[in-house]
Amino acid sequence: MNTQINIESRQRTQAASSSLQVRGLSLRLDGRVVLRDVTLQLPATGITTLIGPSGAGKTSLLRCLNGLLEHWQGEVRIAGKDTRQWPGGWDALRRHVGLLGQKPCVFPLSIRANVVFGIQGFWRRRRAAARVEHYLRQAALWDEVAERLQQPAQRLSIGQQQRLCLARALAVKPRMLLLDEPTASLDPTSKHLIERSIGRLANELPVLWVTHDLEQARRLGGQVVFMCEGRIIEQGASEAFFRRPQRLESREFINWQVCDCGGPS
């Protein structure tokens, strides 16, 4: 009896400290199974890297979590709230859960206007404009653009544009960040700057980062989730995962970046 009480108490404690809980998430697109019974938790802060071969379902998982894909089965809770019942609907959820993709998408506006673009309401935008420096500093971009905030954002380099997109995502004050290979097409300097910025932000909020770069996953630390064929194969602390993976599929992927996980069709 006491053992059962202790287990239930521990489960409640884990749920309370978890920013994201996913249970039995499955997804079909065009008749094809993309995600298969995905279950995971993200801690309240820190970086979790999501790795796996192309086509494993990593991007689809991110899009389910922030509501870009809606027709999935299972349960997703963020801060204890069911995302299907999110106050204000999917649009409100997407302001709460920021998503940064591989390719930067800046608007044909000034650098300053891009930062505050997603903020709703005239007075909110006006107040946020006073904090543009803050968001650009968080994205490690302020020193490079401080003297040209009124210039078109499209004049920035690709690496700078990606950091501007990060600043824009931060300006709406998300409670979670989803990153889909945000540094895949960037030069080493920009990659380093984004990794360092996200590392600092992860002290305050949870980050789920998709990467094909295993060395990057090692550098980022935190937790690792390995996916293949739409399923989670293994998850755990980064250092332990890369030092001694528990599954044969994980060892093959780490050593040769190949995966033959099989699974039901």
What's the layout of helices and strands?
Elements: H1 2-17, E1 18-29, E2 32-43, E3 46-51, H2 58-65, E4 72-78, E5 81-82, H3 89-96, E6 97-100, H4 111-116, H5 122-129, H6 132-138, H7 142-145, H8 158-171, E7 176-180, H9 188-201, E8 206-210, H10 214-220, E9 223-228, E10 231-237, H11 238-243, H12 248-256
Parallel strand pairs: 3-8, 3-9, 6-7, 7-8
Antiparallel strand pairs: 1-2, 1-4, 4-5, 9-10
What does this structure look like?
- The protein is α/β, with parallel strands linked by helices and 265 residues long.
- Helices cover 40% and strands 25% of the residues.
- It contains twelve helices and ten strands.
- It has helices at 2-17, 58-65, 89-96, 111-116, 122-129, 132-138, 142-145, 158-171, 188-201, 214-220, 238-243, 248-256, and strands at residues 18-29, 32-43, 46-51, 72-78, 81-82, 97-100, 176-180, 206-210, 223-228, 231-237.
- The longest helix is centred in the first third of the chain and has 16 residues, at 2-17.
- The N and C termini lie far apart (41 Å).
- Mean pLDDT is 87; it is low at 1-17.
